[in-house]
Design a protein that fits this description.
Helix content is about 75%, strand content about 5%. By secondary structure, it is mostly helical.
Length: about 300
């Protein structure tokens, strides 16, 4: 593999890692506050892609506005999901809410099959994304550059929101100590709803970007990326936003580079994520950026 080949794979890996990072942030935000793995997160990602598809197909609104509206609308779907599937069970045992999350995932997948149909659909990629930029011997599509830029902008915005606003401070308080935060007068329901909205919004942006990068939509398209992004969040240290981003990039770059270096393992591409997860859990169970949890006796 020459220099041009390496750069080609590197840009592809960064692009895929950016997508994983966007979706992994939603997992880690919800877990950080509720200690809940939202297994329906990958299906929210799928809904974001489909809503964008129908928005472009059946309206005359500019594509960039459709992208924004679809992501915001999907954010509200995530908020609704929290109110219906998770809020009534908040005081229940952890296993109950986990089963509810798995049930919500199956419901959204089957809802997608019934409403959108089981046949794959071609995502209407705007022409600007299909343009190819040539840098030396490397040919890179514009979307490969756009995805990391979008991820960085959203990550910086989210970091500012969490560190500089009152709502962000309330989120951090909830993630540190749920009971104490509620005693301090923080509106728990409001903060959790905002968390689900932001997580679902980011998942939808990931779904839209995924559609432009891999333009084939299916109702089950969110299952494997959702699982991989959960793994990325665990690798980085679930509950830690920076860790989720690092985990996403490690996973994306690792997948692409392994295929580049060992083409015979292309069929085992998805297995890489699970092998890496096992290694991380054996070496550092709390993840790369995770903190040790000390139990008070």
């Amino acid at each position: 593999m020459g220099n041009s080949g390496f750069l080609q794979h590197l840009t592809n890996g960064i692009s895929l890692g950016s997508l994983y990072a966007l979706i992994a942030i939603g997992y880690t935000m919800v877990y950080g506050i509720l200690r809940l793995i939202n297994f329906a997160h990958g299906d929210i990602f799928m809904l974001g892609a489909y809503i964008t598809y129908y928005g472009i197909l059946f309206t005359s609104i500019p594509w960039w506005l459709v992208f924004i509206f679809a992501s915001v609308f999907t954010g509200f779907i995530g908020l609704l999901l929290e109110k219906i599937a998770y809020r009534p069970l908040r005081e229940s045992p952890r296993i109950t809410i986990l089963i509810s999350a798995i049930g919500a995932s199956f419901f959204l997948q089957n809802f997608g099959i019934v409403v959108f149909g089981g046949r794959p659909k071609a995502f209407p990629v705007p022409n600007i994304f299909n343009k190819v930029i040539r840098l030396g011997g490397v040919s890179v599509s514009v979307v490969t550059f756009i995805i990391p830029i979008v991820t960085i902008i959203l990550l910086l915005g989210l970091t500012y929101f969490i560190t500089k606003t009152k709502t962000g401070m309330a989120m951090r308080a909830l993630s540190k100590d749920y009971e104490t935060a509620s005693l301090m007068g923080i509106d728990i329901n409001k903060i959790i709803s905002i968390t689900f909205f932001i997580g679902s919004f980011l998942a939808a942006v990931g779904g839209v970007m995924w559609g432009t990068r891999y333009p084939q939509l299916m109702p089950l398209m969110g299952a494997m990326p959702g699982l991989k992004c959960f793994i990325a969040a665990v690798i980085g240290g679930i509950g830690n936003i920076t860790g989720a981003v690092i985990g996403g990039f490690i996973l994306g770059l690792g997948e692409i580079m392994i295929i580049a270096l060992l083409p015979n393992l292309t069929g085992y591409r998805d297995a890489f994520a699970f092998v890496l997860l096992i290694v991380i859990l054996l070496v550092k169970p709390t993840g790369l950026m995770g903190e040790k949890i000390t139990e008070k006796v």
